Amino acid sequence: AQRDLTKQRRADCRRQRLAAALPLGEALLLIHAGEPVPLPEGSDQTYPFRSHAEYLYAAGEECARGVVAFDPRDGAAGWRTFTPAVTEAERIWEGRQSSAGQSLDEL
């Protein structure tokens, strides 16, 4: 629990620095984590996933297909993380875990 709290504080500090550095005005900021890249052999397997650096910086964790959104009109409360649902097959075969955040369908 303490580790998660420290991780969240670091993400909050990064988000504050990011918001201060970008002249967004009233524009929304959307940062996409990226998609898994399939192996060239034509199987259903993918290379190990790594989020785009910008997403990892703002979200604080890896999450394929995740999106971080920021609405500067809401100040520090304007940050939202949207993550895709993890299917039973992904949980069993890939060991994926659900990530913190709102459902990607809400975006």
Structural class from helices and strands? alpha+beta
Major pleated sheet: 4 strands, mixed
Give unreliable regions as ranges. none
Element order: H for helix, E for strand: HEHEEHE
> On the 0-100 scale, what is the average pLDDT?
87
Write the layout of secondary structure elements.
Layout (H helix, E strand, L loop, with lengths): L1 H20 L7 E4 L20 H7 L7 E4 L8 E5 L4 H7 L7 E2 L4
Parallel strand pairs: 3-4
Antiparallel strand pairs: 1-2, 2-3
Q: What can you tell me about this protein's structure?
A:
This protein has 107 residues and is α+β, with helices and mostly antiparallel strands. Helices cover 32% and strands 14% of the residues. It contains three helices and four strands. The longest helix has 20 residues, at 2-21. The protein is elongated and about 45 Å long. 17% of the residues are buried.
At a glance:
The protein is of the alpha+beta class and 107 residues long.
Question: Key terms for this structure?
Answer:
14% strand; 107 residues; single chain; four-stranded mixed β-sheet; alpha+beta; elongated
